[in-house]
Amino acid sequence: VDDLLAEGVSGRTVFVRSDLNVPLKDGEVTDDGRIRASLPVLEKLTSAGARVIVAAHLGRPKGQFDPQFSLEPVAHRLSQLTDAPVKGIDSQEPLAGEAAKAAVAELADGDIFMLENIRFDPRETSKEDAERSAFAQELAELTGENGAYVNDAFGAVHRKHASVYDLASRLPAYQGDLVATELEVLQRLTEAPSRPYTVVLGGSKVSDKLAVIENLIPKADALVIGGGMVFTFAKAMGYGIGKSLVEEDKLETVKGFVELAQQHGCRLIFPTDIVMAASFAADAEHEVLPVDELENGKHGDQALGLDIGPESAEAFAAEIAASNTIFWNGPMGVFEMEAFASGTKAVAQALTETGGFSVVGGGDSAAAVRTLGFDESRFGHISTGGGASLEYLEGKELPGITALGA
Ligand code: 3PG
Questions:
Q1: Ligand 1 centroid from CA 60, angstroms
Q2: Of 144, 179, 214, which residue is a domain's last?
Q3: Which pTM does this prediction carry?
Q4: DSSP-derived secondary structure for 338-359
């Protein structure tokens, strides 16, 4: 954003797209990592005298006002974290309507005005170029004469949405500092990772990770698999998995990954033991079983796997310790429940202790390390982007970046 600052922003209205998609519970922000990551750009702009409009999305509302997706709690947290006064629009008003224009007209230099959830307008996410374009035009007009656009929403740059993509061609457009930092780190992972380069993937669904697995097998020295997606691999290898999560339609695909890994000399590392539980509940009875005995425990084929076991956790930690570059995305188990958090904790712990460069990618994994109480500064980098960082690593084009022409 320094280019924009060099041009001078005092008195100008700058539209900043941030990613403030944070977890909420009972109307309170439970992890404000993304809000804090958005502050530097906002502070640079406001202290240089800009009048800032902040736009962001929260969750996936259905293109209309819905109180459970209101950005109100986020605006509240933002106002606690910044010195600048944060004003917000009445949630029922159109996003770029008269009320918004009037509110922008009243901004003083250095003020922040936060729009309601940008996805309350169905045109934000429309597949129709003309609809998104019309919305982007309205948003651009909010900035009046001499306005500018800053995209700092790294977590959303993989979305071809009006405020992420189309708006960049309607106003002088600049890359935010968070986007720049995130891109630098990911480039380091894709272009010349210091070896051994280990990728640790978890999370519940293998279907979310197919492209990234395929793309990383040729690049990484080792691919460590944990989380719910383990069971699709385990079933494909012929193991009984009880009632564990499985994606039947992906069995052939994951078999293909095992072959692909062999071809490229990438070691695929699976858990050797699993915490099998009687049910999906925080207080469920559970036991550790070897991966080839998952249906032979107390609950037979009714048990389900909710975490990697201690032997696997130790092996994964040893892989991480022996690596020079590590990318981690996705929890190893149901870390939200204390009884099934050990695997995720062990991986996070190993990442804080390694001498290598560790990158935590993904909203969930980032939230996990913070809610589990790890010190953020012990990691090489904690990305604010989940889908966005995976798509970058998959080698896909990111519309929000392309639009900036950077
Ligand atoms: C995220 O949480 O990964 C980003 O905010 C993007 O959200 P989306 O997947 O709903 O587009």
A1: 8
A2: 179
A3: 0.89
A4: GGG-HHHHHHHHHHHH-SSEEE
